[in-house]
Amino acid sequence: MSDDDCCAVDNDLVRSPGYRRALWIVVGLNVAYGLVEIVGGFLANSQALKADALDFLGDGSITFLGLLAISWSIAWRARSALIQGLFLGLLGFWVLTSTIARFFGDTPVEAGLMGTFAVIALIVNVVAVIPLLPYRGGDANMRAVWLFSRNDAIGNVAVIVAAGFVAVTRSPLPDLIVAILIAGLFLHSAWNIVDHALKDLRAANAAERMPTGAGDSSK
After folding, report:
1. Which domains, and CATH codes, for the chain?
2. DSSP single-letter state for residue 106
3. What is the H or E stretch that residue 27 is in?
4. What is d(CA 102, CA 153) in angstroms, rounded to the nearest whole number?
C-alpha cells in the first residue's frame, strides 16, 4: 500500500492538467492584483485594503508552492499544506497587531478609492475561484489553496461594506474593524489547514510503518 492509497486521495484529480491550469490562474491573478491593491491600500490609507493585498500576495506565493507539490507524495503535499497554514497564521497575526496599533491614530480613509479597489478585487477573486471549484475537496494541499481563494472573496465583500460605512460615518473605524475580521479569517483558516495537514501526515506515516502486504486479506 502506498502513502497516497492510505488517505484515499484521487491522484488523477490532483495531478490533472485542469488542476495545474487552475493553480496557474490563481497564481497569476493573485500576484498581479496583490501588487496593484497594496498601492491602492496606501493611496486610500486603508488598513483593510492592505490586509487584503497581503492576502493576495500570500495566496499567489503559497499557491505556487502548491503547484510544485502536485507531483509529490501525500506526505510531502501535507508538509506543503502545513507550511501554507503556518504562513497564513503568521500573516493573520501581523495584520491583527498592526491594525490594533492603528486604533490609536486618526488618519482619514479615502472611502471611494477603498471601495473601487475592493470591487475590482472581488471580481478578480471570483475569476480565480471558479476554476478551483471542482478541486476543493481533495487533499490538505488542495484544501489549503481553496481556503486561501475563498477567504479572499469573503474579505473583498467585507472591504466593500466597510468602504460604504466609512463614506457614511466619515470614520476610519469600519476599515479597522474589517481588517481585524480579515485577520481572524486568516487565523481560523490557518488552523483548519494545519489540522488537515497533520491528519494527512499521521495517516501517511502510519502507512509507511505498515508491513508490506499487511492490509491484503487475500494472503
Report:
1. 9-209 (1.20.1510)
2. -
3. helix 17-44
4. 24
The grid cell for 141 is 494541499
State whether the Cα torsion 65-98-92-133 is positive or negative: negative
Distance CA 176, CA 45 (A): 11
Rounded-to-integer distance, Cα 22 and Cα 219, Å: 42
In the block, cell 501554507 appears at 84
Residue count (the chain): 219
| Helices within 47-172 (DSSP H only) | 47-69, 74-102, 111-129, 140-169
Contact assessment for residue 84 and residue 144, using Cβ atoms and an 8 Å cutoff: yes
CA 194, CA 92: separation in Å to the nearest integer?
14
Positive or negative, the Cα torsion across 138, 144, 145, 147? positive
Place of cell 474593524: 177
- Per-residue model confidence as pLDDT tens digits over 94-103: 888 888 888 8
Cβ-in-10-Å burial (0-12, 13-18, 19+) of 80 comes to buried
**What value does the CA radius of gyration of the chain take, rounded to a whole number of Å?**
20
How does pLDDT run across 148-182, given as a tens digit for each residue?
Answer: 777 777 778 889 999 999 999 988 899 999 888 88
pLDDT of residue 210: 65
Residue 71 phi/psi, 5-degree rounding, is -85, 0
